Amino acid sequence: MAFARSRQALAIAGVLGLALGVTACGTGNDKKSSNASKPECAAYEKYQGHDGKKVTIYSSIRDIEADRLDQSWKQFEDCTGIDIDHEGSGEFEAQLGVRVDGGNAPDLAFIPQPGLLKRFVDSGKIKEVGADTKAMAEQNFTPDWLKYSTVNGKLYGVPLGSNVKSYVWYSPKTFKDKGWSVPTTWDELIALSDKIAASGTKPWCAGIESGDATGWPATDWIEDVLLRTQGVEVYDQWTTHGIPFNDPKVADAVDKAGTILKNEKYMNGGFGGVKSIATTSFQEAGTPITTGKCAMHRQASFYANQWPEGTKVAEDGDVFAFYFPAVDPSKGKPVLGAGEFVSAFADRPEVQAVQTYLASGEYVNSRAKIGDWLSANKKLDINNVPNPVDKLSVQILQDPKTEFRFDGSDLMPAAVGAGTFWKGMVDWINGKDTTTVLNGIEGSWK
Amino acid sequence: MEFDFAAEQPKFLMLMYGLIAFVGVVGGLLLLLDVVPAWFARRREERLVAAVASGTPLPRRRKPREGVIALFFLLPTLLFLLVGLVVPAIRTTLLSFMDKDSSSWVGLANYSWLFSEDSIVRVLINSLIWVLLVPLAATAFGLIYAVLVDKARFEAVAKSLIFLPMAISFVGAAIIWKFVYAYRGDGDQIGLLNQIVVSLGGEPKQWLLESPLNTFLLIVIMVWIQAGFAMVVLSAAIKAIPADIVEAARLDGVSPWQMFWQITMPSIRPALIVVVVTLSIATLKVFDIVRTATNGNYDTNVIATEMYNQAFRYQENGHGSALAVFLFVLVIPIVIYQIRNLRQQREG
């Protein structure tokens, strides 16, 4: 009995082992064949010589956006034989640290927070970009952009996609019907808001609920207003803690944002009072514009993807966006935005080739054609950008008068920029006064 | 949407790997548990046969061999405990005395931060409220329910009704209750609670924004889930009370009230302690409900969510580890109490 049973078990184990071995072999050699000689591959000449190599990329980009990524570098893969393996995660920021510290770093990561990038540079995990990559980046991006991935004079990442946050969404149709005109100064903006409020409609709508990132849309408001009331220099001091977080200049900007955000006469069209901002999800916050319950919604260019199906996004369509007006025209045309940076945790030649490619004009145009994407890359041809809001964004980014500044909460240490600043804004919307909130955030920045 | 088998192929491949790995591990374990004892048994058999054949007296089973076998079976568990529990616990404790990227020692700075930062003190107070209320309320509800439905006509149905929430994950439950507490500024209320308030003529409220009420509303979710667990365990304990004791009490003419306090309560005391202790530990660790319902905003944060935020989202390893150690210290007395109780019962 005992003999029979143990023999049987041995047989099972043997078969299992064999099965494992066979499948391991089966997947080992799906190497791509290089098509380097094809005519469309001429543009990839300088990336050749890495046939059959694999490069892993980790990012926060998922679902349809991830499919578009795979599509965007398909031709590059076919021509060079480099296999790009992209993995997107909803817990990217938390998981990247775990993976890197655990010795399981991806070859490349798309990091949306310069603050997080700096942390990995400080701990010596991110590799400085190679000479070819650096040349490509310097050729295609303004120093304004590159400084966010530069630490101690060395470049540790190349910008990829971008977005423009200084937008107010509105309905061109409603504006035309009611005879309202798009405001171009802060005073006009307030005058228009009062006019709409007097007509019985709440002029503004907002929502800052965003899962475990709840609060971020309000931080964008503050940053945008600070850029307008104080200009870029004070803004830079503030994001680098050169002035305290609760500096009177900042408090002034927060209060100015409060004249709209915390104004019961203005807020929150379609959702209720000011406090409903805290529980309204940022994805649905602008929808009352399509039903006429709200007139204006300040949100970034990527909000173009959030409108209900069938909404036409165009200058003469159902919804469109105008530039969040300047408060003091003498302070220039500040633009708040964000984007992600491609940083390398490995310096193998094929990894550097992919990093260089992602900074190239070939790549950004290939990606832009697929839609809903833009970049500050100078080689980006505006005709390749299908979406009218993205077109406007590219114009703004390529305008030499534009003073671009990166989203401040992404520049600050994560404990502040993704922690107390977000939570502080939630408390502020929920009724806490400006001084208490700013003091609390300042106290957490050590 | 079209289902493209070829495009989904990598996922199926992964699925297959997972299945194979599962079969491999389980098969390996079975093999280990089957072959090894069989091997020992066979050797004994052979020795017995040899002993009988040669006519020598049967060799006595030696004690050390049993120890070796025991060690053999304990080894994997000990190894996993060491790798999965002891080492991380020691490392976390060490990290709690280091700075945010664990590069230099900072002494007790992280612990003084724990008790000086206003928002963290709020977190500690909230956790205290949780651990005081949840075990108490869940056990009380479970007990009352168990006593009331005991030997009732539809006992099985009544019990499964209250046990059902146990089958829902914490995240799922939090989402369900978020809808109960939901608020709409204008138009119809979609939240049950606000609809009740409105139909009674009241003003709808943003329930989850009102501190400290919101913490209690979140506690309700946990009680809703855990009352079923308390009920099942206590109901089983009530059924296990020897019938002769109950009968004797009845003959002595006790009132239902006396029956409950003099007979039921003392008899189910061990089960009661197990329930309270289990619930206390579960409550101290509560994470999913708070993270899903409010993400710790509006003054509802608790230790476990803050620990996760500090360590993984803010990259403050020191702060996160200090919170973890603090949580660990809070759980220890409860565990010691539980172990002592178990020991007393065994002796008594």
TrEMBL record, chain A:
Q: Which PROSITE patterns match?
A: PROKAR_LIPOPROTEIN
**Keyword Signal belongs to the record:** yes
InterPro entries per record: Bact_solute-bd_prot1 (IPR050490), SBP (IPR006059)
Q: Give the family this protein belongs to, as stated in its UniProt record.
A: Belongs to the bacterial solute-binding protein 1 family.
Q: Which UniProt keywords apply?
A: Signal, Transport
The organism's superkingdom is given as Bacteria
Organism this protein belongs to: Micromonospora chaiyaphumensis
Report if keyword RNA-binding is assigned: no
The protein here is known as Carbohydrate ABC transporter substrate-binding protein, CUT1 family
Signal peptide as annotated in the record: 1-24
The record's section on Pfam families has: SBP_bac_8
UniProtKB/TrEMBL annotation, chain B:
Record has Iron as a keyword? no
List, for all copies, the residue spans of the domain called ABC transmembrane type-1. Answer: 124-340
Residue ranges annotated as transmembrane are 12-40, 68-90, 128-149, 161-183, 216-238, 259-282, 321-339
Keyword annotations of the record: Cell membrane, Membrane, Transmembrane, Transmembrane helix, Transport
Main localization is membrane
- Enumerate the Pfam families for this protein: BPD_transp_1 (PF00528)
Q: ATP-binding as a keyword?
A: no
Q: How does it sit in the membrane?
A: Multi-pass membrane protein
A GO-annotated cellular component: plasma membrane
Question: Entry's Gene3D superfamilies?
Answer: MetI-like
Write down the SUPFAM superfamilies for this protein, in alphabetical order: MetI-like
Q: Which GO terms describe its biological process?
A: transmembrane transport
Q: Which InterPro entries match?
A: ABC_transporter_permease (IPR051393), MetI-like (IPR000515), MetI-like_sf (IPR035906)
The cross-references to PROSITE patterns, in alphabetical order and at most eight, read: ABC_TM1
Location in the cell reads: Cell membrane
> Which family does the record claim for this protein?
Belongs to the binding-protein-dependent transport system permease family.
Q: Which PANTHER family match?
A: ABC TRANSPORTER PERMEASE PROTEIN (PTHR30193), OSMOPROTECTIVE COMPOUNDS UPTAKE PERMEASE PROTEIN GGTC (PTHR30193:SF18)
Please give the name of this protein: Carbohydrate ABC transporter membrane protein 1, CUT1 family
**Organism field:** Micromonospora chaiyaphumensis
